[in-house]
TrEMBL record:
PANTHER family, per the entry: PEPTIDASE M20, PEPTIDASE M20 DIMERISATION DOMAIN-CONTAINING PROTEIN
Source organism superkingdom: Bacteria
Protein name, per record: Amidohydrolase
InterPro entries cross-referenced by the UniProt entry: Amidohydrolase (IPR017439), Bact_exopeptidase_dim_dom (IPR036264), Peptidase_M20 (IPR002933), Peptidase_M20/M20A_hydrolases (IPR052030), Peptidase_M20_dimer (IPR011650)
Recorded GO MF terms: dipeptidase activity; para-aminobenzoyl-glutamate hydrolase activity
Region annotation Disordered: where it falls in the sequence: 451-472
Coiled coil spans: none
Annotated ranges, domain Peptidase M20 dimerisation: 208-298
GO terms under cellular component: cytoplasm
NCBIfam families: amidohydrolases
């Protein structure tokens, strides 16, 4: 196949096949929406996906990072592998009108529509499978959202998970080793353009800080106490004092809460927990903002003479889409929806684990309309499953067609531009999959640390504060 007309014919066949699956695609979107499950617990949703793959006679694996389901469609020729993803998980939002009354889970980020667009794309591409020079993986992935972190930390300690979010865990397990590029289509908020392409997202880091002082009678002998709450409030003030130093273009956000602020006002608080989420647009800005928060924590500890034990975990890497994939998607979206309906995306302050995947392969993450309300709020709901799920199924499948027809020339060109094709042009990455994973782990490792800082230790030279354990 070589002419544009032939590609148009293939795309027409894809669209007709998606249309034939219309009712089932819309039903799976609504079904998953009605049965929300939080990350790493998406058993029912995963079973629906598995049933779909079984019906299509696609070989698949399940139980990846607990609930992931991954099917492979073999192309007529060999070549690179393109993945279409769908995120399985819901948020924890009991006030949402469609929340599960038992668990409080609710699809307030529209991920159910991604599941439908993924299986819809599979239905569409099955009609032209023989004309693709490369495989297509359809992958339902768990736990994009950062919820139930205490439980997830237990799973990490128990060795069941390596990371707190789905794609990071799947990457570490090698579940993306046999995939060369990946795409999904996410729903946007109310009033969003029909489709936006090329949006980027902040990376995010979580710091859990425990300030420990000494309790004493708050009325009779407060001077005997060491007030951990005052350390925490000073640290918060010190964080706020630095906001002017964050550059606009870095989109830094620092948000903190005190999940535990002391037990009773009759005693000097000796144990206070602070949790901080730090976000920024680049790895460098994220590290700088983390260092600023560390200084603020130490300032609070030194001022009162408490100890501050800090555990830092990288949540998501900054997300940047592959520019060539974005262009390919834009062209297809303009054909499907009309050029006036497709806009160039912007930088979003939120975060996604597609940032992690973008570190190991080219990724595409357009946003579609079809929902009302603001994402992650009780009024957010996909109300138009055709716009949110069915049409994105055609869009994603068309992108796959462009990538994999003609000896997968376009996929190879994009991999080459991303520095991932060897000189033989066989679509192998220039690093082995294990090397890519190692580099990714090393990047994560630059953030992950835990240490205790003793604000009361004045040291031999009189310098306040010592890092007692580990490195910062
Ligand atoms: Zn979300
Ligand atoms: Zn989301």
């Amino acid at each position: 196949m070589s002419t544009a007309g032939q590609v148009t014919e293939v795309k027409r066949a894809v669209r007709e096949a998606v249309e034939r699956s219309r009712d089932r695609v819309l039903e799976i979107s609504a079904d998953v929406q009605r049965h929300p499950e939080t990350g790493f617990r998406e058993e029912r949703s995963a079973a629906l996906v598995a049933d779909w793959f079984t019906g299509m006679e696609l070989p698949f694996e399940r139980g990846l990072s607990r609930t992931g389901v991954k099917a492979r469609m073999t192309g007529g020729g060999s070549g690179p592998t393109v993945a279409v993803l769908g995120e399985l998980d819901a948020l924890l939002l009991p006030s949402h009108p469609l929340a599960d009354p038992g668990t409080g889970a609710a699809h307030a980020c529209g991920h159910h529509a991604q599941i439908a667009s993924m299986v819809g794309a599979a239905a569409g591409l099955a009609a032209v499978q023989e004309q693709l020079d490369g495989d297509v993986v359809f992958f339902a992935v768990p736990a994009e959202e950062s919820t139930e972190l205490a439980w997830r930390r237990e799973l990490v300690r128990a060795g069941e998970l390596r990371h707190l979010v789905g794609k990071a865990d799947l990457i570490a397990r090698g579940a993306f080793d046999d995939i060369d590029m990946a795409m999904l289509c996410h729903t946007a908020g109310e009033g969003a353009p029909r489709l936006s392409v090329g949006d980027s997202h902040n990376g995010s880091v979580v710091k859990q800080v425990l300030f420990q002082g000494r309790a004493s009678h708050a009325g009779a002998s407060p001077w005997r106490g060491v007030n951990a709450l005052k350390s925490a409030t000073l640290a918060l003030a010190a964080i706020d004092a630095q906001r002017d130093t964050f550059r606009d273009e870095d989109a830094v956000r620092v948000n903190a809460v005190l999940p535990q602020g002391g037990s009773a006002p009759t005693a000097v608080p000796d144990r206070v927990e602070m949790e901080v989420v730090i976000r920024a647009r680049t790895v460098g800005a994220l590290r700088e903002a983390c260092a600023a928060v560390d200084r603020a924590v130490r300032a609070g500890a030194v001022a009162l003479g408490t100890t501050a034990t800090t555990e830092t975990t990288l949540n998501y890497l900054p997300h940047h889409q592959d520019p060539e994939l974005v262009e390919l998607c834009r062209a297809n979206a303009e054909t499907l929806f009309g050029p006036e309906k497709v806009v160039r995306g912007w930088h979003r302050g939120a975060s996604t684990d597609m940032g992690d995947l973008g570190e190991v392969m080219p990724v595409l993450h357009p946003f579609t309309a079809g929902a009302v309300g603001d994402a992650h709020s009780p009024d957010y709901q996909v109300t138009d499953h055709v716009t949110a799920a069915l049409e994105p199924a055609v869009l994603l499948a068309w992108c796959v067609v462009d990538l994999l027809v003609d000896g997968a020339a376009e996929a190879r060109r994009i991999m080459d531009a991303a520095g991932r094709t060897d000189e033989d042009g066989r679509g192998r990455q220039d690093r082995t999959a294990a090397q890519v994973r190692d580099d990714y782990a090393a990047l994560r490792g630059r953030f992950d640390a835990s240490y205790t800082f003793d604000g009361a230790d004045t040291g031999a030279g009189g310098d306040a504060g010592r890092v007692r354990r580990g490195e910062d």
